[in-house]
Amino acid sequence: MSNPKPTVILRNCPEYNTDHIEQIILEGLDTLQLKPHGKTLVKPNVVASGNHFPHAYTRPEFLEGVLRALKKAADPDTLQELAVGERCGITMPTRYAFEGAGYYPMFKRINGLKHYHFEEETQVEIPLYHDERLRDSIFTPEPIANADFFVNCPKFKAHPWTTVTFSLKNYIGIQDDPHRLIDHDHSLNEKVADLQYIVQPQFIAIDAITAGEGRMLTPIPFDMGMVIMGNNQVAFDVVCCHIIGIDPLSVPHIRMCHERGFGPASLDEINIVGDLTLAQAQHKANGFSVGLVRVEDYFEGTNIKAYAGAPPSKDYDYCWGGCPGAMEEAIEIMRLFDSRTDTKMPKTHLVFGDYKGTIEAKPDERVVLIGDCATFKGDIAGTPHEFTSQYTDRSQKSVYKAKADNIFSKMVGVEWKMFKERKNQAFRVAGCPVSVAEQVLLLVKLGKLKNPYLDPGEIITFNNCYFSSRIRMAIDRMFGKPYQNPGEAHRGHARPEQNLPDYKNVQVKSQ
Ligand code: SF4
Questions:
Q1: Which residue of 61, 125, 338, 419 lies most exposed, with the fewest beta carbons within 10 A?
Q2: What is the pLDDT of residues 308-344, one digit of tens each?
Q3: What tens digit of pLDDT does each residue of 106-140 get?
Q4: Same domain, yes or no, for 12 and 108?
């Protein structure tokens, strides 16, 4: 018998036991009647990893259980490739994130497994046709464009810019830095919705054993003890929202994807099965907090005073996907590396967006406008100042000319900027967005803090990963592998007739 509704499976899993996780995933694949085939690609969330970010990523024990189960469940005659691919947080090499996550030894244990660092792959253009699109095309790494059986394997976390990062939001890691940074601003939710047209996963399995509260890079661990699986991203995220007690339609990217036909938002249209009821899952998640906090409130009670005006859009009064949230993540990184960050920081004023109010800064307090759209007109310590917007409308930014600096360029850039502005009380750091890394480097200079990118415990590994990545890309380019394939119609993903997944016709075993 078949059940036409998208299915979400709730399973109890108190610890990171790979054998147990493998069994749970095998049973999930069986329930959903899924057989991995062709090019099977698994996308974990490894935005950051290692000792400083222990709860930010899909744990290797979890991923290994998923990979083993996929291999067992696959039809060996039709499985061409089993692979893992990811682009970690902007600026850092994915090799470094995989190393810190302990993935490489695990990869070796899965016979024949391939892995992709997405920023090193050719970026393929995917045309978009839907009315609400931000642009006419977007780029994604070739392994994503070519995947026949796509598995989304996120970490259950809160997110300071998008409320939560479950299955839909994990797609931000299917673009390399230059393409990811485009539209990573107040339209971040629309961007996440647009990324859905590239490919939809046949299978989703989220690491909700130790979930992450509050933030995405430095979340507070929350012992949730669950594995959740599904076959539809919207239905999956909707159930996850209900588990933590938030209205799924209050999360803009989930609402947008639902409105565009990617899946149902009502629990009546979702088949929830497993060894936990929704009520039991809610009990396990009781008290989990999400992290949508405006920057002015975030810095309340510290030496940093933040001021936020509207971004350049009539539809938004705050830039949830850009500079303010990046600053919140930046200060948390600094606190991780230096517990005295807050006491060391001098009184500083940070301005975001079109700010219309006053700035009560004393003559020795720096005022920094963060981002191209930041504006201010008025007196600062008795001296008149005027900063007008330098924002370039998104229609003027081309996906074909997308660029992103590496961490060494950013270090040099911030160093030079601070030298040039050394005598100015108020100045702007340009960019849209100004990345987390640049804001970390800015705080380092303003507060004379330790530079986390030069941490002695990490520098050798980081440099090894960084230069391996650069050498690999240089060799590829030398032998004719292009960086971008503009106009390439790969596999017809996002063709008009394939724009929407036929989620109403999935077949699962009845329970
Ligand atoms: S400059 Fe920053 S705050 Fe302004 S629109 Fe761009 S990302 Fe948002």
A1: 419
A2: 999 999 899 999 999 999 999 899 999 988 889 999 9
A3: 999 999 999 999 999 999 999 888 899 999 999 99
A4: yes
CA of 12 to the centre of ligand 1 (A): 41
Q: What is the CA radius of gyration of the chain?
A: 23
Domain containing 491 — which CATH number?
A: 3.40.50.11440
Residues with CB under 6 A from ligand 1: 185-186, 311-312, 319, 322-323, 352-353, 371-373, 432-433
Ligand 1: residue whose CA is nearest its atom 4: 373
- Indicate if 276 and 307 belong to the same structural domain: no
Concatenated DSSP letters of 165-222: ESSSGGGGGGS-HHHHHTT-STTHHHHHHHHTTT---SEEEEEEEEEEES-SSSPEEE
Residues 112 and 181 in one domain: yes
How remote is the CA of residue 429 from the centroid of ligand 1, in Å?
A: 11
**From ligand 1's centre to the CA of 407, what distance in Å?**
20
How many angstroms is it from 458 CA to the middle of ligand 1?
31
The alpha carbon of 431 and the centre of ligand 1 are apart by a number of angstroms equal to: 8
Contact of 444 with 417, CB cutoff 8 Å:
no
The minimum-distance atom of ligand 1 relative to the CA of 371 is 1
pTM of the model: 0.93
pLDDT digits (tens, 9 = 90+) for 22-62: 999 999 999 999 999 999 999 999 999 998 899 999 999 99
Q: Which range of residues forms the domain containing residue 173?
A: 7-291+485-499
Given a contact cutoff of 8 angstroms between Cβ atoms, the answer to whether 230 and 6 are in contact is yes
Domain presence at residue 19: yes
CA distance 463 to 412: 16
